[in-house]
Amino acid sequence: MTPVAPSAEGLVDRYGRVARGLRVSLTDKCNLRCTYCMPAEGLPWLAGPDLLTDAEIVRLVRVAVGRLGVTEVRFTGGEPLIRPGLAGIVAEVAALRPRPRICLTTNGIGLDRVASGLRAAGVDRVNVSLDTLDPERFRQLTRRSQLDAVLAGLAGAASAGLTPVKINTVLMRGVNDDEAPALLRFALDHGYQLRFIEQMPLDAQHGWDRSRMVTAEEILAALATTFDLSPDPAVRGAAPAETWLVDGGPARVGVIASVTQAFCGDCDRTRLTADGQVRSCLFATEESDLRGALRAGADDDELARRWRAAMWGKRAGHGIDDPTFLQPARPMSAIGG
Prior knowledge:
With 337 residues, the chain is α/β, with parallel strands linked by helices. Helices cover 29% and strands 17% of the residues.
């Protein structure tokens, strides 16, 4: 196979996949210290000059949408709500034509205060991370006593119309793996959509241990003790979550089995880090620099060409089960989900 990118308009890779979803990390900073993500003292954050400016982010998203066929833009972090220019960035992206669908992944802290403004700016829906409903367990997991703030953020998002409000949950063996049914009951009672995610090797400490990961099979077995689950007849497409009808529907629960049932063959995502690096895969060990080219005066055609070349080199899969697998040097907080 040739390593040279094709002249196609979109973000095509050599396996025929087309990236239409863009994940944009707005910052590597976060106001939580989740044990499976970073150490208690935090991490060495990116220096201010290394971060893309608001205008640079909008320009690169414009290239992705206008020239490369991206139809959905998801803003992530770190924690995107702590980016001062978030609402302005969203408004400019919402003004692009064709208008992309705009989503936000957040820990929910402070979301209740800004949800209406983000909705007005152009955010269509949000995903909120929530791993436990127990205040003390939340404090142990995140090293912060902010459960009430997250719950308020969820309610605020729903009130503002950022629907469907989705909850992302990571279960950890011996930590919160007993909460699966309670978390689903909470989501059903409040009209949220819950998605469980297998814990992935993306922690800053590089301490991920597969034996401690709660698998999709185990998650479904735990839920089945309380709920009747049946396969969702809807076409999954490129969605990362396999969904199940709960007690006959219409409510659903999703499971993202990133490790045990990889869906790499249907992946349609490209990623842009807060410092302007293109990543073709969440687990990529290489990046392509757009920030340098942008600041050196590259026009939009050149930026698009570089982006296409980066995606053409995308690997067939993440390779977690390969004995030669190497965890990315960047943790999740610096990559963007």
